[in-house]
Amino acid sequence: MASKTTGTQADIFARIKTDHDTIRSLLEKTEKANGSGRAVFEELQRELWAHSKVEEGVFYASLKKVKEAKSETVEGLNEHHLINGLLDELNAMKTTDSGWKEKLQVLGELVRHHLDEEEEELFEEAKEALDDDRAAELGSAYAERKTHIMAGLAPL
């Protein structure tokens, strides 16, 4: 079942998938920068942090009473926690520090696993629980919150 859009209105699944694609791209750029990519790492960090907060507040919150999605949602929250911990550790290091590249590799593996699992498993469970109108409503809420959070996280 494909994500639905009405006009320019993207549903929650399309919004999250767009974020996931952005995160994958930023992760790849950070990995390819090979130690010289502090700016792109900081962009990746902002994107991951904003995405997880909005996803938890809009998407996961809408699924908290859906029995079929409960396990995947709890797992997603735990993965967000692990991702944020790795981001904090990487942020405290210089990109030239011993171990930075390896820690970034672990972050990449965890993030890619998390994104794939959401798209392949959680989305399917959520599509059973959310009708098209609710998915569109959540998509709008997601977009609005994400815009505000990203503005607040923009570098000065």
Quick overview of this protein structure:
It is built from 5 helices and 2 strands, in the order E-E-H-H-H-H-H.
Describe the model.
By secondary structure, the protein is an all-alpha fold. Helices cover 78% and strands 3% of the residues. The chain has five helices and two strands. A two-stranded antiparallel sheet has the order 1-2. The longest helix has 30 residues, at 100-129. The protein is globular and about 50 Å long. The N and C termini lie far apart (42 Å).
Topology:
Elements: E1 5-6, E2 9-10, H1 12-33, H2 38-63, H3 70-91, H4 100-129, H5 132-153
Antiparallel strand pairs: 1-2
**How does the major sheet shape up?**
2 strands, antiparallel
Radius of gyration: 16 Å
Q: Roughly what is the average pLDDT, rounded to an integer? A: 91
Q: Write down the secondary-structure element order.
A: EEHHHHH
The secondary structure category is mainly alpha
Shape: globular
- Extended strand count: 2
* Spatial order of strands in the largest sheet: 1-2
Termini separation comes to: 42 Å
Q: Helix segment count?
A: 5
List its salient traits.
mainly alpha, two-stranded antiparallel ribbon, globular
